[in-house]
Amino acid sequence: MSTLELLDTARARLAAGGAAREALGELVVPRRILGVARAPRVERRGSAWHLGALLLTDDAVLATGEVVRARQEARRGYTAESQRQRSELAFAARRGGFAEGETVHVGWRVLSADTPDAPLALRDGIPSIRWSAAGALMPLDAYLAERVSLLLEPPAGA
């Protein structure tokens, strides 16, 4: 099977099973007004099924970026700058109109499903995926089967 056929099969299973989608967002930094900076916000750009390293929409496949839960701003102390940045992104999602606690994917990028594009690859003519930065390639059909099953029938307590 080709990469496109595997992705279409996964879409059909997810749609038929009524799998939940998660929001896609894009960080927008508004223009200054009279020299005054306005707070950035995350604007809604659609929804997708989250399949680990991939996000699957009705007509595209995306590489995941950052995943945050929208929340109201609150004064907090941070032990790491990366923690502060993630928190700012969560605040920006809430300012952009996402519901409190809603999962939002930011920083995703569109992949080309018909030509190899990281994390998708062809290994010996077999569509494959690198499911983590340090992970090895694995066949895409097995990866999608596992991820779709987990999304349709999550383990108890998940």
TrEMBL record:
By what name is this protein known? Answer: Glutaminase
